[in-house]
Each structure stands twice: as C-alpha cells, then as structure tokens.
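dumping this here before i forget
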Amino acid sequence: MEELFGISKTQLKKILTQALSRGGDHVDIFFEYRATSFIKMEENIIKTTSYSISSGAGIRVIDGEQIGYSYTEDITFDNLKEAASAASYIATNKKENLIAPIQRTRKRNLYSVSTYSIEEPISRKIDLIETVNKTARGYDSKISQVTVTFSEELRKILYVDAEGKFFEDIQPLVLLTCYCIADDGKTRQGAGVATGGRSGLEFYEIDENSPIEIATEAAHIAVTNLDARPAPAGSLAVVLGPGESGILLHEAVGHGLEADFARKKLSNYSDKIGEKVASEHCTVIDSGLIPGLRGSINIDDEGTLPEETIMIENGVLRGYMHDILSARIMDMHATGNGRRESFKYPPMPRMTNIFMKPGNYDPEEIISSVKFGIYAKRFAGGQVNIVNGDFTFGVSEAYLIENGKITAPLKDVTLIGNGPDILRKVEMVANDLKFSRGGWTCGKNDQRVPVGIGMPTVKVSEITVGGTKL
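structure:
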C-alpha cells in the first residue's frame, strides 16, 4: 500500500526521526484513503447521489501524558516532515530515541470481500434500492411514504511507528436503510430498519439481510404501530429484546468503561477494578474480532491487534478498553481500542462491538416471569450523559407484557434511568445473544466511528417508563 501514499520506507524512517528530534516516548504515522458514496430514493425517484474521496496522514508524538499531533491532506515527503516537526514540539525530555527497522506485520482478515461494493456498478445498488421501495410500498395500502438509502465506504489505512510496526488494512462498509410512514387517516406512524456491515454486496444475498426482508420489517412495524396503545408510565419491569437493545449498553455503560474517562475520574467505574458493579448475571465484553460487524477491525488505528476484552465479569469490574496512551499511563496493555474518525484526529479509547454475554434462560421463560411490564425491542434516539450513564431513550418498537405474555403494541415509550444502576437490576439473561446489523455510529469528542452492538434478551427488575397512561 506504500504505492498508494507514495512514501518509501527510507522516507518513513526519516519522518519518524524528525518527529522524535526533541525527544518523546512514542511516535507514529497514520495514513488514510477513504472513498464514500450515498444514494437516496424518495417518492419512487432517485433524488440524491454523491461520491467523495479524501486522503491524508497524521503524525502523533506522545511525551508522558501529552500528545503532539499534526496532519496534512497533501501527502508528500516534505509535508510529512513539516508535520513531524510540528508534532515534535510537545516533547521536552530530549532523550535519544532509536528507530527500529520497519517490518510488515501479519494480521488476521475479518472481512474477506471478493469485490468491494464501491467498485461495483451503480446499477446493482439501485436494484437493491428499488426492490426495497417496491416491497415496502406493496406491503400494505396504509404505507404512504418510503425512503430508501444506500451508503458505502472503502477505507485504506497504513500505520507505522518508531518501534518498527508496519500495518495496513482495507476496511469496507455497506449500509442499506428503509424508512416507512404508515397512515390510516387518523394517525401516522414511522419505522426504520437498517442493515449492513464490513462486507460487499453479497451481504444482501443472505435471506435475513435481503432487501425484501428489510422492507417488510420496516413496513410491518409502521403498520403495527398504527394500532399501538398509549404506554403506561411509572417504574415497571422491562424486558430488553435481543440485538438492538445493545445500544443502551453501549451508550449508558460502555463509555464509562473507556480508559480515558476512567483514568481522569470521569466515570462511575473509576478506581473500581475488582469491585462488584453489576448483577452477577452480567458479563460485558468488547470484541473487535467478530467477522463482518461494523465495529470489527483487523487492526485498530494505532497498529494494535483487537482482542476480546472482558470489562465486567459476573458483575465484577475486571478492566477497561485501552489505547496506547491510556495503557502506558495506567500500566496496562493496549486492547485494540485505539480508534479515530480520520487522519485529522489522534486516536482515543473507543468501543468496537460491545455486548452482554448470553445467560442460561430461555427467552420465553423471561417473558413468562413478568406479570406486567414492557418488552422493548427496537430503540430510537435518546439523550445520554456518557460520563455518568444517565439516559433517556425512546423505544420505537415496544409491546405490553401482561401475565407472562406479549400482548399489545405500545407507542410513545421512553425509558429513563442510569446505565450502571440498570446493570445492578438485571435479574435474568437469556441464551439468545444477537448482534444488530444496524448502522450504528458512535460519537465522542466530535469524532464518529462505526460500531457494533449485541444483546441477549434481558430482564431488568424496574426502569422508569415515561408514557402517557398511568
């Protein structure tokens, strides 16, 4: 991939030497090329198409807890030396550093793709979109509006550092979405479904990911919600459905397990390793190793191989997600969670695919244990304090549980609570772990990265439900 960026290994060593000219503990160079495209259909017409390419490189110098970072969008040897010089000014220790021989490092392959989607004819993508649109509109006469989008990305990265690491990776990403509005003349309800991952267009040849399945599910939810009852309000037992409800785990718990928050004492989990922080039914894991998921990566954005990181085990806090900087400061090892939005930013600890380990209960057993409560299957937007875990989440697909059975669909369901508190109230965890294939993207410090989420069916003894009917 050196040919893509036009910089030789000899030049790389000179740039690294320049970056360490004033000292420092660590230096790395991150090259990135990104191509993206987007297609949108509304009112049976392709209304938007776009295609963009960006490339550049960033140089980072770490000196103690300080970071010097500089980047260029014009990759030349001279520009990189200038960026290296700018980044070097953070360093003050003046110690001598040696540049290790640069050697290509082997990596795994979690997303083997025969043809990258972005290299396929646009006609194939429009065929997908038209199939979704036609299927959704034909599902029921109450479907009044359908919006379908297809987005794709191809990201090529190269990482090199003074310790001799030399990693490269090509990361594909596809996403197909369908949003339907149903109207019966009295009320309107909307529902959206998205599916994708690190794959090519062959992803949509699998039955559960097919355009027909996506359209049918979105239309079904929208039409079903026309008959939804007002949600009850109060403190109720809540059963979180498999897959999509992992977003609550990600937002309200996961960020507090990122080591930069933990070491700065900004997390509920700071200084609590070895302590019980959740129900004994809860084991929370982050893994970048699950083939095809949005958050899976062959290497992270600072050349570390991802791993399966157990943060909470049977309710006990075991550790955090680390990048190189936090691992150095906290005397831990980097866990493959150093991620960045692009070459314009330094990496930081970020989730890849976070999930709760499955338990031993059957999902039906969990539902039957609830006399009166809520089954939350699919989540909409919400507000989260990612430091302390306080959240308000809208539930876009929810059902009433009465006497151990799922009965009526509900509307206007909001869950209000605190992530760490919810984990302490987990009473049952099912054996049906499911990973969502939705288009999840995580924002932190103005950086957005693709992530994955997973969840089995989980019973929480009580969550505050903001509804409209007492």
